[in-house]
From TrEMBL:
It comes from Acanthoscelides obtectus (Bean weevil). It catalyses: gamma-L-glutamyl-L-cysteine + glycine + ATP = glutathione + ADP + phosphate + H(+). Keywords: Signal. Residues 1-19 form the signal peptide. This is Glutathione synthetase. It comes from the Eukaryota. Residues 96-184 form the Glutathione synthase substrate-binding domain.
Length: 187
């Protein structure tokens, strides 16, 4: 499977919202066919970029450098991370951070960490933190200007890697935390 990432800026509850979209392709009789476009909690940009490097390494090891030209560049990871950084710039507060909302137990943590490290590589001034919905219920609040504050950090961008299915909301508190995040705005 080949993963391509796209980024779009959308109008949402807040005046501006960031969409991270993932298109998946599969090989069908020597042509690539798009099989899916993910619009919710898109991930695997980190893993797919690493797999491209693995494919190149294997071709080198088996002496098939002639086939290298058939492996297209994969910029999925930098694409999604630059999207998050563009959204961070639009928020326009240098002290703001990027928040990843994560599951209580995250099997996909390697992919998420790739994003975190790439954001830090692209712009070392931007801090990334990870919180669950329950932690947000315990620790998040809105300032009087409706900035989202968690553990003393102002949140400029949220990447939702959890919260897309009802099972992630253990009680009314997690729903309240989600509503709080949706209501946050400074733009
Ligand atoms: C960034 O947020 C902090 C905390 O609310 C605020 O004091 C500061 O003025 C903001 N900076 C800008 C440029 O809006």
């Amino acid at each position: 499977m080949i993963v391509m990432a796209r980024v779009c800026i959308m109008v949402w509850f807040q005046r501006i919202a960031l969409g991270l979209l993932r298109c998946d392709y599969m090989l069908h009789e020597y042509t690539l066919k798009q099989v899916e476009m993910n619009t919710i909690a898109s991930s695997f940009a980190g893993i797919s970029t690493a797999i491209t490097q693995l494919d190149r390494f294997i071709l080198t090891e088996i002496g098939r450098l002639d086939s290298m030209e058939h492996i297209p560049p994969n910029g999925a990871l930098a694409g999604l991370c630059n999207g998050m950084l563009d959204a961070w710039k639009m928020y326009n507060n240098k002290t703001a951070i990027i928040l990843f909302i994560v599951e209580d137990v995250t099997y996909n943590i390697c992919d998420q960490r790739f994003h975190e490290f790439e954001i830090r590589r692209l712009n070392p001034h931007v801090k990334v933190i990870r919180r669950t919905l329950t932690q947000m219920a315990d620790r998040a609040s809105l300032s009087k200007d409706k900035e989202l504050i968690v553990d003393g950090n102002i949140v400029g961008v949220i990447y939702f890697r959890s919260g897309y299915e009802t099972a992630a909301y253990h009680s009314q508190r997690e729903w309240d935390a989600r509503l709080l995040m949706e209501r946050a705005t400074k733009l």
